[in-house]
Structures are given as structure tokens and as C-alpha cells.
């Protein structure tokens, strides 16, 4: 079972480049990133993200072109089944997954168009810093540099 936090679900413009993205925070996180900004997501909380719930969220958010899960939860089978459902029933949407793991299985890359890997390491910074250890892949291509700030001024 995959659970999400309805109150934190939002349409975002910066998580996935050039996409209007419906982002869902997934609970039951298996990671242990020091300095995690959402450590409460390690808990078993929220609402079950069933295929019907995913359909409702997508239908209620006209104009999105990407469906993002911010976390994998603790049930890989349910995660892949949900991705398959969204792909089949909403073919206009691209699918994205933020994983805190360093590596993910081939099945994850096959199921999602965008896959972010790498635990958050505070000293290396987030995805928008060139020093980050995190990577965002689009169909296997590393597109992480698209997040890096151009001409950032020293402060």
C-alpha cells in the first residue's frame, strides 16, 4: 500500500523541468537522510493512494502534464502497480519519482519518465547546486545540470 499526505498535495512548477506537475508527498519513507526536511514522512500516515484516488486527483487538477511521487513508500509492488495504472489510464501524463536511494531497480526506470536518485546530503546541497550528489534522470539521461543556477552571485 502507498500512502500520501492530501494536505501537502500541490501543483508545482519547479520540481520537474518544463512540466506542470501534481506532486504528492509519500509516507513510510525508508530513507534516513541526515538533515531531512520532512522526517515526519518516515511515519505511517496519510491516505491510501489507490488507483481510484490517483484518478480523482488527476481529474481534479486540469492542466497538469506530470504526476510526481515524492518518495517510494514501503511497498515496491504497489508503487509499480500505481505507476502502471496511471500510465495506462492517463497516457498524456509523464510520471516522476523522487527516491532517496542511491540506486533504484531497472523496473523503476522503466515505470517512470523522470527518476531522482540520491539521498539528501546537507553538505552537498540540493538538486539546484552543482555540488549535489543527487541526480534527476529523464528516460536514462542525466538532466541534473538543468537545475543549476546560472550566474549565481556569491553572498
List keywords for this structure.
3 helices, 4Fe-4S cluster-binding domain-containing protein, 19% helix
Number of strands: 9
Structural class: alpha/beta
Mean model confidence by pLDDT? 91
User: In whole angstroms, how far apart are the ends?
Assistant: 45 Å
Question: What share of the residues does DSSP label as strand, in percent?
Answer: 15-25%
Helix content: 10-25%
Poorly predicted parts: none
The helix-strand sequence is EEEEHEHEHEEE
- Radius of gyration, CA atoms, in whole angstroms: 15 Å
Largest sheet: 7 strands, mixed
**Total helical elements:** 3
Strand order of the largest sheet: 2-3-5-6-7-8-9
Q: Give the overall shape.
A: globular
If you had to describe this structure to a student in words, what would you say it looks like?
This protein is α/β, with parallel strands linked by helices and 155 residues long. The chain is built from three helices and nine strands. It has helices at 51-59, 76-89, 106-111, and strands spanning 3-4, 10-12, 21-25, 47-48, 66-70, 94-98, 114-117, 135-138, 141-142. Strands 2-3-5-6-7-8-9 form a seven-stranded mixed beta sheet. Strand 6, helix 3 and strand 7 form a beta-alpha-beta unit. The termini are far apart. 28% of the residues are buried.
Produce a short descriptive summary.
The chain is α/β, with parallel strands linked by helices and 155 residues long.
Question: What's the layout of helices and strands?
Answer:
Elements (H helix, E strand, L loop, with lengths): L2 E2 L5 E3 L8 E5 L21 E2 L2 H9 L6 E5 L5 H14 L4 E5 L7 H6 L2 E4 L17 E4 L2 E2 L13
Parallel strand pairs: 3-5, 5-6, 6-7
Antiparallel strand pairs: 1-4, 2-3, 7-8, 8-9
